[in-house]
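To assess whether ligand presence alters the predicted conformation, the chain was also submitted together with NAP. Input:
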Amino acid sequence: MKSLALLPPNGPKRPEFKYSTQIHHQPFNFGILKTPEPVPDGEDSLGDYKVLVLKKAISINFRDLSMLFTLNNNLKQSPSGHHFFGSDFVAEVVGIGKKVRSIKIGDRVIPNCDYFIKPMRGVSRKGIPSNRASMAYEFLLEDKLIKIDDDLSDEVAASISIGLQTSYAMIRKAKLKKNSRILVTSGSSNTSLFIIETLKMKGYLPTILTSSQNTFKALKKDGNEVVLYNQLEDIETALRKFNGLNNGFDIVFDPFSDVFFEKLLPFVNVNGKYITCGLYKQKPEFIALNQPGNASLGYLLAHMIMKNVQLIGNCLGNTKDLLNGIEDLKSGRIKVNIENIYQLDNLGPFIEMAFNDKNRMGKVVLKYA
Ligand SMILES: NC(=O)c1ccc[n+]([C@@H]2O[C@H](COP(=O)([O-])OP(=O)(O)OC[C@H]3O[C@@H](n4cnc5c(N)ncnc54)[C@H](OP(=O)(O)O)[C@@H]3O)[C@@H](O)[C@H]2O)c1
């Protein structure tokens, strides 16, 4: 089988090499490696509970870019090395440990990113099961996988674990009221697209902030309330124009709080909630699209305290969040936004769309089979 891999940015060109590009002005090399089926490790005490999976498709998240930078920097010191990367996938089960009960050979599975699952025999099982989704074969723990049935295509199944589980957890924590006024930032981001879908299913019409013309048009066409801004400095004017002066939001869903929190706090109503799952500046190399604000932490906290605003951090979700999301997908109550689907032999366009295309609005999927 074949696997997508990150190759050293400065090493000699190897037979596996397929594509070079710049991301945030840094050089990256990608290649395709032949990966034989691994032999189970008999000494691994957790082996009995493990499942061997063969990937059918993967998709990219913002966190994968952050990890790519770490791996790329490591590879500068090992020019003959390589790294696999990625976290969302769909795979076929090709082997199971003696004590695996819930999954059988031939099942299709996706990651279960449950962040609250208890350790088993002292081993933590919190969070995302794989940071090497692009590796064709992988041994993973049974309870870090969710079996999915044929109702969901490979491209959809490969796109949902992180985004669906996180967005359902964020909405659960928001404890929405009937008339809650809701703002969602970064409308093109996958996390926000999942949040928007789910809010609409629940009967809410959120206001969506985006810097992308493409997303502005697409979401407006779908009947959403969308506010377009160009530079971060324009957000206040854009929101006031759209929203009036005295009409704030009860809930803000924000995947990039280092970018937006300071700008949006004045727009959060008394007793409002600000729910965030992430930051933009995850690596020093990431070029800031906008200059960070200069308000002190004390000023922001005072503002929050005086308005009784709750700031809620959220990492991933629980198993029920993912299962609820899958049920809603299967019944057609929500959909997954997929921007494009690529095959392994079309690597360049996949990499560009996943990591460099500013017009992207949805998941970018790479199919292995
Ligand atoms: N902790 C968790 O459990 C968890 C889970 C999922 C995601 N996250 C976090 O959530 C965030 C979003 O992840 P994702 O995979 O959904 O992202 P994504 O799909 O890659 O989002 C890309 C979009 O985000 C907006 N954006 C990116 N950089 C920006 C900047 N500097 N300034 C303003 N807007 C910017 C743009 O939206 P517009 O074009 O609409 O302006 C851009 O099109 C990341 O921080 C990620 O780590 C965390």
